[in-house]
Each structure stands twice: as C-alpha cells, then as structure tokens.
Amino acid sequence: MWKYVVKRLILALISTIIILTFTFILIKLLPFQRPVGTDEAMFSYYRDQVNKGYVLDFRFARNNYGEMLWSYQDGSGRWHYFYQTPVLTQLFMWFKNIITAWDWGTSTIIKPNVGAMSIIMERLPVTVSINIISVIVAVPLGILLGIWAALKKNKPTDHIISTGVMIFISIPSFILITFLMLIFCYTLGWLPTQWPSESATTATKALGYIVPVCCLSFGSIAGYARFTRAELCEVMSSEYLLLARTKGLTKRQAIIRHALRNAMVPIVPSILAEVIAVLAGSMILETLYGVPGIGRLFLTALNSKDYNVLLVDMAVYTLIGLVAGVVLDLSYGFIDPRIRMGAKK
User: Fold this and answer.
1) Would you call 249 helix, strand, or coil by DSSP?
2) Is 337 in a helix, a strand, or coil?
C-alpha cells in the first residue's frame, strides 16, 4: 500500500511539473503586457524582474534580443533598456525561484509589484469556505434523498425525487444563480444582491452565503441522490442481502448493516470528485455574485492580462485537482478492505 501511495505522489508531482511547464510556456508566448503605475514603480518592477532572471538590463538598445520592453533614465543619467530573456530561461528561473524562495512572480495589473501568490492566498479562504459549506449541505441531503428514493422504489415518492433530480442536474449553475438572485435578491429583497463588503454586519455576511451555497449545492444534491439510489437499488437486489433477510434480519437491519455499507464504497469517492467539480463551477458564480474568490480572480486576471496572477491561479486549480485525484484513488483502499492497491498476488 505504501509503495502505491509513494508511486501516486511521484506521478502527481511529475504531472504537476508537466502541466505547469506547458502552462508557463503558453502564457509567456502571449504578447507582453506592460505593468501599470508611475515610472518609479515600473522601474522598481523591472529591476525586480532582472534580479529574478526574467529580464535583462542593458545600457544601450539591442537589436538581437527581440522587442524592447521598456527604457528608463535613472537619477544618475544612466539609461536602462529592458529585454525579456528566452522563455526556457524564464521557465528555469521560475521553478528555481519557487523552490528556493517560494516566489511565484509579481502582479503587473491587479496589484502592481505585489506577489501573485499573496493575492491568491487573500482570496482563497472565501472560495474554500463557500465550497466546504456547499459540500457539508449537499452530501447528507443528497445521500438521504437517494436512500429514501431507493426504499420507496417505483412509488410516488421515488418518482417525485427522481424528477427533481433530473431537473436540477439539467439546469446549469449560472442559470440557477440568475433565478435565485432575481427572485430572492431583487424581487423579494430577502438576500443581498451582491457579496457583502468587509464593513457589512455579521448577519448580512451570513446571508451572503445563501445564494452561492444553494446554487452549488442543488446540483450536487441531485448528483448524490441519483448515484445513491442507483447503488442502493442494486445492492438491495443482491443475493447476499436476501440471505441476510432469510437469517432473521429485519429489512431495516439488513439495509443498515449490509446494504448501506456496500453502497457507500463507490459513493464516498464520488464525493471527492464532486468537490473538484464544485470548485471549478464556482468560477462563474463568483463573477456573477461578486464573490472575491480565486474563481473571479482567474477571469479578472485573464481579462486584464495579468499573466503572473493567471499562472498562479491555474497552478492552484491544478494542484487541487491532482491532490484530490490522489486522495480519490487512495480512498478506495481505506473504504473497502477487500481492495489493496499494490499488494502481491
């Protein structure tokens, strides 16, 4: 088991390096976006890029280094002509700065001369909190609805739950949040129309979570309910469950002791997969509702061409996805004792 864990971690690390390498190269091949600010601030930015190995500083203009990024005459009268280093050199220096100094680059547009990773870390708690709350709400409700539908199979209760499940699975999250905002925020006025500011009261901040959490939860609840119903119906019709009933167990005892435990084997790992999907889907929701999270920051960095922040944001999503994938694979062995990855025959 430990050999398999180490192997999966190494593969995840290699995958991370490959993904970040291609992402970095593709982003750096885009047209260079010059930073904004005063001449002194821009000069400080370019000098910092020189120290990090991304930019070269010459006293005279050069024709063999591509397009000149910027020129500046300092207080001593010396001219500085800045040119980009080759993309592969920047890639090497980027990984080196991350490993040695945990330096992921600086923002050029959103917050000039501020570390891109610090900008991400400021907004990450909001995104994580919304997604965690939505998972806490969706998992028990979805599983309970699925169990209820399975126990009432082919009855009116099952048909009502299955119909609701299909409706909420079919509706895109950005359409759902539009209806929620239109009805509860603008028409009824019960909830804030946008994400509350830092100066808002605690009650207003709590109400601000309702719209995004509900929007993220409805689709997950429907997915869990459908998956739980399908798995439980299959288990309940198996031979070993019928044998348990013939040995004297009641229907409730057989379901709790045997059916639910076996049905949870594929359901629990699906929860981790759903977390990844929810995290990716919150990108549009954060933009529509004005949530200051990393999903909205991704689109802001893309539109403003703040490539360093965009690169770090993509790296965070990549790392979350790969780590969740590793945990997803390992969870099978812990949930089902019959599964032993990497064991000898």
Assistant:
1) coil
2) coil
What single DSSP character describes residue 67?
S
The whole-model pTM stands at 0.79
Residue closest to 80 by CA, chosen among 38, 29, 42:
42
The C-alpha angle 106, 111, 115, rounded to 5 degrees, equals 30
Q: Which residue(s) pair with 35 in the sheet?
A: none
In sequence order, the β-bridge partners of residue 79 are: 73
Q: Which helix (H) or strand (E) holds 1?
A: none
- Complete DSSP assignment for 68-105: --EEEE-TTS-EEEEEEPPHHHHHHHHHHHHHHH----
Least Cα distance to 110 among 315, 307, 280 occurs for 307
Task: Give the separation between CA 288 and CA 174, rounded to whole angstroms.
Answer: 8
Reference 98, options 117, 85, 112, 111; nearest CA is 117
The neighbour count for residue 190, using CB atoms within 10 Å, is 10
CA dist., res. 200 & res. 206, Å (int) = 10
The tokens of 12 are what?
A: 């995840």
pLDDT tens digit string along 217-247? 888 888 888 888 888 887 777 777 777 777 7
pLDDT tens-place string over residues 84-125 = 888 999 999 999 999 998 889 888 888 888 889 999 999 888
